[in-house]
Amino acid sequence: MFWIVIGVVVVLFAAAIVMTRSDSQNGSAATTAGIEETRAVSVTGDALPMFPESGEDSAIGQQIPAVEGQTFEGEDIAITSDGRPKMVLLLAHWCSVCQDEVPVVQEWIDATGMPEGVDLYSIATSTSEGQANYPPSEWLERADWSLPVLADSGRYEASDAFGLSAFPFFVFVNSDGTVARRLVGAQSAEQISQAISQLK
Amino acid sequence: MDTTLVMSRFFALLTVAANLLVLGALVMLVAARRSPAAARFKTDLRELLRTYALPFAWLVALTATLGSLYYSEVANFVPCKLCWYQRIAMYPLVVILGIAAIRRDIHVRRYVVPVAGIGAAIAIFHYGLQRFPELTSGSCDPTAPCTSTWVWQFQFISIPFMALSGFALIAILLLLAPGEPKPQAPETADNQISTKERENNGLSLSSPRP
Fold it and tell me: CA geometry: angle at A110 spanning A109 and A113, to 5°?
C-alpha cells in the first residue's frame, strides 16, 4: 500500500515535469514575435508617495518622476514632464476591476475620440505568469486597447514610481508635470473625462 | 523551466487524484445501496481503511501543509487572510492525525472532521471570491488580495480548491473507516452488535461506543 502511494506520487510528479516542459516549448514558439510581458524600466526623480487610504492625497502638486520603458513590442515609451497634460492608467491583468474598466475607457475613447491636447498612457504592471488572464499583451489586444502600453518591469518600478495602492490606478498630470489628481478603483467615463477637463 | 510551475502542476495533479478518490467514494456509497457487488467492494474497502485511513489522511494533511509552505516560503506567494484561516484548519491536522495514526485512534474523527468541514467551507468561500471577485469591492488590492488567483491549473484548480480537495479527502477517509476495532471474539454482550450495525457506524459521526 505504501509503495502504491509512493508510485502514484512519483508518476504524478513526472507527469507534472513533462506537461510543464511541453507547455514551455509551445510558449517559446508564441514569444518569437518579440513580445515581452515585462520590460526594463528606468525612473528618474522622486517617486510619488503611496496613495493614502483616506484623507488628502499628498502627491497633489508634486512633480511626477520621469518613467522610461518600452511597450510589449519593445518600442520606447516615456512618461515625463514634457509640457503636456496627461492621464496614466495602471492596470493588472489578473485584476477583475481592471478587466471591467478597460472596455469602459475604450468605449469612451471610441465614442468621443482621444481627448484634445491630453496624452493618455497605460501601464501593464503586477504582471505574473501564474495568475489569471495572463498574458496582459493578449488581454489588451483582445480588448482593442488603443492607449499606448508601457510594460512594467518584474519589480514593478513604474507602479512604485506613481505610488500605486490598488488597481485600477489613475494619475492625472498637469502640463507642468505636477499631479492634479489620483483616483483608485473603477471610474465611469464621466468621472474620467471630468478629471481630464480639469487639467491645467 | 520554472520550478514553481512544475510544483503547481504536481499539486494540481494530486488535487485531481484527491477529487477522483472523493468522487469515487461518493459514487460507491450510492451504488452500494443498489448493487451487491458494490456493497461487497464497500465492505472490502472499509476493511482496508481500518488500517490505512489514518496514515493516509495524515499524509494528505502533511502534503497540504508542505504545499502551502512551499507557496509562501519558496515561491514567495503572499497568503491572504482567507488563506490563513484555511491554514489554521489544516496545519494542526498534521499533528493530530499523526498521533491518531500511531495510536490507531479512529475516534479522533470526532475532532478532525468538524475542523476539516470548517476549512472546506472557508475554501469554498475563497474559491467563490476568486471566481467572482467583482462581488467584493471596486478595486483590486495589489498586496495580498483574497480575490487574486496565484495558481490556475487545468482551468479550475486554484490554491483554495487544492485546500478544499484536501479537506474533503481527509473527511471522507475518516468517515468511511470502520468505527470499531475488529472483533476478535465476542467477549461481552456489548461487542455483539451486528455487522450491519457496525458498518453503519462508520459513516455516522456519533457512532455509539459500546
Answer: 55
Range of the domain at B174: 3-179
Report yes or no for ipTM above 0.85. no
pLDDT band at residue B75 under the 50/70/90 scheme: confident
Residue B133's pLDDT is what?
A: 66
Res. B54: pLDDT tops 70: yes
**Chain A, nearest residue to B153 by Cα:** A130
Cβ of B147 within 8 Å of Cβ of A12? The answer is: no
| Closest chain B C-alpha to A176 CA, distance in angstroms | 29
B84 touches chain A (CB under 8 A): no
Dump strand ranges (E) for B54-187.
Answer: none
**All three cell numbers of A170:** 489613475
CATH superfamily of A35-197: Glutaredoxin (3.40.30.10)
Q: What does the pLDDT look like over A104-147, one tens digit per residue? A: 999 999 999 999 899 999 999 988 876 778 899 999 999 999 99
Cβ-nearest to B13 among A16, A23, A96? A16
Per the CB < 8 A criterion, the answer to whether B49 and B178 are in contact is yes
Tell me whether B133 touches chain A (CB under 8 Å): yes
Strand partners, A123: A90, A150
